[in-house]
Amino acid sequence: MASQQDVPDEYLDGYVQAVADASATGRRLTRDELDARRALGERAAEAGLGLRALVAAHLARTHTGNIGTRVTVDAVVAAGAQAIDAFAEGYERAQRQTMRREEAARREFIDDLLYGRSDLGKLAERAERFGLRLSGEHAIAVARGDSAYEEGDTVAREVERAVIARFGNRNILLTTKEGRLVCIAPGYQYEVLAYFAKQAYAAADGGGQVAIGRPQSGPGGVVQSYEEALGALDLATRLGLDTPVLRSADLLVYPVLTRDRQAMTDLVHHTLGPLHQARGGAQPLIDTLMAYFDAGCVSAEAARQLSLSVRAFTYRLARIHQLTGIDPAIPADRYTLQTAVIGARLLDWPADSA
Fold first, then answer.
1. What SS3 state is found at 182?
2. Which helix (H) or strand (E) segment is 156 a member of?
3. Are the C-beta atoms of 265 and 347 separated by less than 8 Å?
4. CATH no. of 256-347
5. Beta strands in 88-229, from DSSP E residues, in sequence order
6. 218 torsion bin: left (phi>0), alpha (psi -120 to 50), beta (else)
7. Cα separation, 344 vs 353, whole angstroms
8. What pLDDT digit, counting tens, does each position of 246-269 carry?
9. Does residue 1 surpass a pLDDT of 50?
10. DSSP H helical segments within 26-72, as ranges?
């Protein structure tokens, strides 16, 4: 940062004369004089000079004796304060405008990066401005909370400070997108995303969930990793998964199962459709199967989850066997039932059976 000795005279131009003229009569600085100070403040900010050094240079000029000998100290101080305040106002206004332009450019870059809406070569060039080198692998973590995250809100700032304090900001980008926190990091630095996930979950008081996409190469890979993370969050919602941190690599079986949606729909209707004949409909028996599989096929644990006696739970399993002709106790049958139950979750069946 420049010292007061490094401040060019052009940014002090007219200061002594304006203060001298105003303090000689005790008047306030005119609008033109104030506007001139504001304009110089804007120019100084755009030139990258430090405000503290600029203020110090102004104060030094005030004490050179050039103001005049027939003026009171109070008058000089009052006129100098007006001039410096106007200069600082212009400086801060220019800084705000620069910050808005930078933020707009950053948001535009993030939109283009995550949605792949720009030429990949130009996107890679723009990325270097924000500390990213897209030639290598990157992975993305996406965090959601009970409420939407906004850029600059308390949680977003806390998480960003924690991550940057530990890893620095080189080749790491944190932002918000559509109410979620997003962290982009090199694919080989998985510890960055793991730490981000830990901080985001803690900042949300345990009410959030984080998904991590697989490392992918190049600018297009960033989009793919981002979409994988979003897909993992969507799967968690549809399947009722409450795991704090989801890894898309651990959930690859689900996209495979749903790749042929018609085949999955046929499997669900053919396998589970007969459960509609049960008293109370299919849903209680679907819940029974979900609890059974989630509990590792341990009836006692599944019964506890559903607040049922073991006898009542085993009766339900027997009823499922009776209606479907498929026995959950037989491994081959169990695989068919479990796949159908997963499909029911993904298809929101039977609620969306139409």
1. strand
2. helix 154-167
3. yes
4. 1.10.10.2840
5. 137-144, 173-177, 180-186, 209-212, 216-217
6. left
7. 9
8. 999 888 888 777 778 888 889 999
9. no
10. 31-46, 51-62
